[in-house]
Amino acid sequence: MATTAPSTASGPASGPVQGPSRGEGSATTLLNVNGIEVIYNHVILVLKGVSLVVPEGGIVALLGGNGAGKTTTLRAVSNLLAGERGAVTKGSIELRGERIEALSPSELVKRGLIQVMEGRHCFAHLTIEDNLMTGAYTRTDGKAAIAETLEKVYAYFPRLKTRRSSQAAYTSGGEQQMCAIGRALMANPNMVLLDEPSMGLAPQIVDEVFGIVKDLNEKEKVTFLLAEQNTNMALRYADYGYILENGRIVMDGEAKSLRENEDVKEFYLGVGGGDRKSFRDVKSYKRRKRWLA
Ligand SMILES: Nc1ncnc2c1ncn2[C@@H]1O[C@H](COP(=O)(O)OP(=O)(O)OP(=O)(O)O)[C@@H](O)[C@H]1O
Ligand SMILES: [Mg+2]
In whole angstroms, what is the distance from residue 287 CA to residue 282 CA? Predict the structure, then answer.
């Protein structure tokens, strides 16, 4: 299976992935996913040569519709594919320049990389605080340091502090999403892979959650790779975006240029309304898709 060259927001381009902030000299690459192929159950080819770069301190969005391969990409990075009978069969994944495909999820957590899974996954019978504390299990730096992180999580998520002794099952969807992110932060990560944080949440709550993500990124220097169907929201908070379709990156670019890109507007931002798209735009998109196929 041939790997596909990713395009840029301004149109298809062959050659290596451009990625965010390359050549600016400031950002170093934290995560480098290079041409990975993922197969489930030995036969189902889902990722067909996905490449992406996440710079240290960035927020990168991985966008695409149902079944595009977003979750699979995150699982490949955090080595959670085996439980799904999936495997990376080609390509490489590097964290700070070191190959990580052979590291277990808990070894990756120790190296500062953690995933918040799709669908929140709080322990329903535990209180919010006990849920948060489960996130500290890999830490070896003692109770005082853990207590300090807990206070920090509460400072970023005041709602969790209010609800600290409530059973997670009785908290709202937004609070559970915050709890899932807070629990990941208890591991003191440098990088969080966040899978579909907006799922099932009201727009104001999504804004609140993304606002906190942005805050954590700016103040705590946490790097995020954010998988989202909610392109509109994700591109408002991310610096850079990759669009996945059917297991391939079909476009990538600065968040701002993707937001302004006509094809992205039409196909992912749902902009149509009074300002109807011309056929030419649709045709250029189809041409591009054919070129990439
Ligand atoms: N455990 C699995 N076994 C077999 N196929 C799978 C498995 N998990 C996912 N797939 C398939 O892989 C493809 C990509 O799925 P994935 O969950 O990565 O997409 P996604 O972009 O996260 O979609 P969504 O936005 O719906 O979460 C889909 O066609 C899906 O059916
Ligand atoms: Mg998914």
Answer: 9
Q: What is the CATH number of the domain that holds 184?
A: 3.40.50.300
For the Cβ of 230 lying below 6 angstroms from any atom of ligand 1, the answer is no
Report the C-alpha gap between 251 and 6 in whole angstroms.
Answer: 6
19 lines ligand 1 (CB under 6 A): no
Q: pLDDT (tens digit, 9 = 90+) per residue, 107-166?
A: 999 999 999 998 777 899 999 999 999 999 989 999 999 999 999 999 999 999 999 999
CA 196 / ligand 2 centre spacing (Å) = 7
Task: Tell me the C-alpha distance between 64 and 67, whole Å.
Answer: 8
Is position 137 within any domain? yes
Q: Quick check: CB of 75 below 6 Å from ligand 1?
A: no
Closest Cα to atom 26 of ligand 1: 66
